[in-house]
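INPUT
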Amino acid sequence: MVRILGRNIYSTLTLSSFTFILLMWFALSYSGAVKELFLPSPGSVLQALGEMHEEGILVDYTLDSTYRVVVGWIMAVIVSIPLGMLVATSKKAEAILTPVIEFARYLPVVAMVPLTLLYFGIGDLQKFAVIFLGTFFQLVLMVSDVVAGVQRDLLRAAATLGASRWQIYRLVLMPASLPGIMDSLRITIGWAWTYLVVAELVAANSGLGHMILKSQRFLATDRMFAGLIIIGLLGLATDLFFKWLTRVVVPWNEKAGGKA
Amino acid sequence: MNKLVLNGVGKTFGTGGKAVEALSDINLCIAENELAVIVGPSGCGKSTLLNIVAGLEQADSGVITMNNRNIEGPGADRGVVFQSYTLFPWLTVQQNVEFGLKIKGINAKERQEIARHYINLVGLGGFEGALPKALSGGMKQRVAIARALANKPEMLLMDEPFGALDAQTRLIMQELLLSVWEKERTTILFITHDIDEAVLLADNVYVMSRRPGRIRCRIQVPIPRPRDHRSTVSPEFSAVKKEIMEMLWEESRTAANER
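OUTPUT
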């Protein structure tokens, strides 16, 4: 059904869902239906944002958190893409790696946070480790699924056109996997944000998660909301960025530019 | 002169109790410049046979030679057009057709000329820069034919290439293939379950039995060339079609009774 919606109707609907949430917020907070302690008014959240900006922590903490997410996630991406391709294309690699990865990916990262603190302290390195552990194993499996799902006849066609094994790998398997890999990247960077905030909530000297936890101690609900809104907006921006990047990187994809 | 010879070719999938014999003692001689069509009931192993000739699958027994040389693995000397769409979606029509030439190491200018020639031959002049996602099913298969031919293969192997197309487009593609073949005279091994298609295209129709597939007989098609859609209403056409139909009907009925 989505496909037959015009572009204008689509954006209007998107906008109206946000407007609805905002209106509900206004109504519930300003009417006094929910106490300010539990649901701060939009005005006081804005004010909190202003104060945090004056204190210099708004931009700093946002950048700190973003930096941790991006570095930790990129480390996972760099290692997992080649491994995922290897697992998908070599039975031996599959036999060696898949059981270990299947085991590791069911270990909740949250349960490993104490260990990472012991190993890496409370600095950036520990945040990288948490994000890496949270996304790496999943990424290997996602990438290997994508690569294994490449239409077999494409590879066969390349072979009958005279391509060697390595040429098939480089000229067909890699480009054919790109759209699926882009999807996996978009999904896992979202998880990376979740794991980062968890790590920052447990132990950190800066970052949005740290800020939210500190605000709880002072019952500064307005700041907690401000933090959540920033995280949400960053997530939204990341998602839009990846959708744009996908259109740039794989403009040939049948799905590219899909329903929106 | 014999181009392709299959001698006692057999193929079994699986082992032990689950083993399924797909092909049994296939003997086949296809002459240079012949347009050979294999028809058979579904599941008779005709695609397996083509894959073996293409080198994509290995026979368990027997000998397969092209130009008196054994076939080992896939190669650019046997171009394949698959039933599924196999254009590389990230390459334009032109780049798709150039794919095999690039691998052969032919220089850019020559590559471009060869690709242009075959794109025009399949009637897609003007679409060089288009991406596959912008093409219809019939157009994609035209590019696939051009891509296979651009490699100047010794043989063109076609595995139900028009099977996914609608009836109108299929007829147009059959005529296109006939006209391309009149000009290029590449030896073609074509697989289909569509009897009309077989009779319209073939010099010789090879009828396969139900599984395990064997070549039941060879039927020469005496319809004069050049052929086009009008050939399908000639009396010769009906006679050959009837002969094949009766043979296949018998095969399907026996297969159904055995189940």
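end of record. Residues 165-202 of chain A form the longest helix (38 residues).
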